[in-house]
Amino acid sequence: MKPIRKKKTKLANIKKIIDRQDEIVTGRISSLNLPKFKKYVICNLRGGIGKTTIAFNLSYLLNDVLVIDTCPQGNLSYFYDSQYFSNNRTTVKDLILPYILPGLGKPSRTAKKIGATNPFFQNKNAFYIPSTSELYLLPSQLSTAINQAKTLTGSQQEEALRNILYSLKYEIDRELEENNLQHVLIDTSPFFSGATHLSWHASDALIVPVRTDQQSINSLELLIDVLENPASEFRRNMPKDGVTPKIQLVILTHCTWSTRSGARNIPNQQTKVYLEKIRDIVSRNIQHFTTDDPDNHILLLDDFLGTGRISTALSKPVTLLQAGETMRINRVKTTVNQSVEKIKAQLQFIANSII
Ligand SMILES: Nc1ncnc2c1ncn2[C@@H]1O[C@H](COP(=O)(O)OP(=O)(O)OP(=O)(O)O)[C@@H](O)[C@H]1O
Ligand SMILES: [Mg+2]
């Protein structure tokens, strides 16, 4: 009897999240009732789970937005500018380094209008600060600077630490003001050391994509440990006035759905298993979330399939794609799936739930 009872309880736990899915897709609800923040960082300590894809698509759905690419791979920068890899320009590294290596000049007005290089953003008031592969060096530069600051004492140490750890925050605030922007999205690498660390200090809340696999569930637990553990890289270097950001949303990506006829918007077994695991983690750690109701913080995003491949190939937001559009990608005929309307509704719902 015991195992059956346990299973029933768990399914009841995720029922609200699953039922909401149908309401989202049919337009019966438009957003979660959550506190709203100005600056979000999209992060999880694992690659290939959808951080950049979500950052790119959300940036299209927000207005007056500043996007910062802090991932040395530069995938988001490439979405915004197909010439990214061959262009020399001011990058996020140029904003951070003067705080770490005193003597370097501070740049200003680094943000670029996305519409200048990505025509799909032409009519949007959206700006971005590009990344650079040189960010691969930032973790060691940052750790040297922090260790040096810690050789100082008293208020001198505090000031030096604040200068380093709030570098990105100060620069983002300056760019927001100079360009009169309202919202910030920061895309991150799969690693904490370096720019992700600075992004946490620069943001108000986290958006955490988790893919439907065990490794990304593990990374969610790891991320919560970095938020919570006093010995973590984040907590042990915290300035006295430092704030630990809370998690606004965990987004379960690559979700697949039941194909049973009549099963409208019901996740398949694999999606349900991961949803249950996430619901467990969120409720055990609810003090790290922006409200005290676990159901408020978990959303699902369909597997993008061909829609994602076409969106990436064209650097075109999913919102602008239509079901049935086709193109050849590496000689393979690829189609925008029928599920694109559902994905558009899910993305819009996420956007409405953060601003
Ligand atoms: N529901 C979904 N959400 C996000 N991405 C999806 C989803 N379904 C499929 N995808 C695909 O999964 C891939 C996610 O890659 P993406 O570059 O966004 O991951 P990432 O977390 O930024 O990786 P990295 O840490 O290497 O930068 C893309 O090819 C995207 O089209
Ligand atoms: Mg990425």
TrEMBL record:
Pfam families reported in the protein's UniProt record: AAA_31
Name the source's superkingdom.
Bacteria
Q: Which CDD domains match?
A: ParAB_family
Kindly list the residue ranges recorded as spanning the membrane: none
Query: Where is the AAA domain positioned along the sequence?
Result: 40-233
PANTHER family documented for this protein: COBYRINIC ACID AC-DIAMIDE SYNTHASE (PTHR13696:SF99), P-LOOP CONTAINING NUCLEOSIDE TRIPHOSPHATE HYDROLASE (PTHR13696)
Q: What is this protein called?
A: ParA protein
Organism encoding this protein: Thermodesulfatator indicus (strain DSM 15286 / JCM 11887 / CIR29812)
Q: What is the lineage of its organism?
A: Bacteria, Pseudomonadati, Thermodesulfobacteriota, Thermodesulfobacteria, Thermodesulfobacteriales
